[in-house]
Amino acid sequence: MQGINGTIFAYGVTSSGKTHTMHGDQRSPGIIPLAVKDAFGIIQETLNREFLLRVSYLEIYNEVVNDLLNPAGKNLRIREDLQGTFVEGIKEEVVLSPTHVLSLIAAGEDSREQPLL
Ligand SMILES: Nc1ncnc2c1ncn2[C@@H]1O[C@H](COP(=O)(O)OP(=O)(O)OP(=O)(O)O)[C@@H](O)[C@H]1O
């Protein structure tokens, strides 16, 4: 089985528009819904292969890596092996539909650190 890792990073100071860019609004979708739609669209058009999709969702806040899909996943370590770079112990949820991905991400949003303004 071949694996492909796709990672989207949003980087910037507080209120610079990371969340807006990733999620979009009523008028225009952001990077996450567009990427999810594309990925499932390609899968549907590819009849001769099977796909397994897993989603992780994390934040790096004040240099600390937190798993947004698992409240117990705090201060995780970034490591490297022959396959590449990975976050040790991060939850990877198998997803079956675009709605499934977007509901996971929405739940993860609620776990984010709230910046002190
Ligand atoms: N391109 C844009 N068009 C319209 N409104 C925007 C745009 N980018 C950001 N905003 C608005 O600016 C505010 C701050 O943006 P956002 O919450 O995306 O920042 P952030 O970088 O995620 O902040 P934080 O680091 O605090 O989470 C929000 O009210 C958002 O709706």
Automatic annotation (TrEMBL):
Molecular-function GO terms, alphabetical: ATP binding; microtubule binding; microtubule motor activity
The entry's keywords: ATP-binding, Microtubule, Motor protein, Nucleotide-binding
SMART domains per record: KISc
Residues at which ATP binds: G12, V13, T14, S15, S16, G17, K18, T19
Gene Ontology, cellular component aspect: microtubule
UniProt-listed GO biological process terms: microtubule-based movement
Span of domain Kinesin motor: 1-117
Cited Pfam families: Kinesin (PF00225)
Gene3D superfamilies: Kinesin motor domain
UniProt cross-references to PANTHER family, sorted A to Z: CENTROMERE PROTEIN E, KINESIN-LIKE PROTEIN KIN-7K, CHLOROPLASTIC ISOFORM X1
Family: Belongs to the TRAFAC class myosin-kinesin ATPase superfamily. Kinesin family.
Protein name in UniProt: Kinesin motor domain-containing protein
Organism annotation: Triticum urartu (Red wild einkorn)
UniProt gene name: LOC125521202
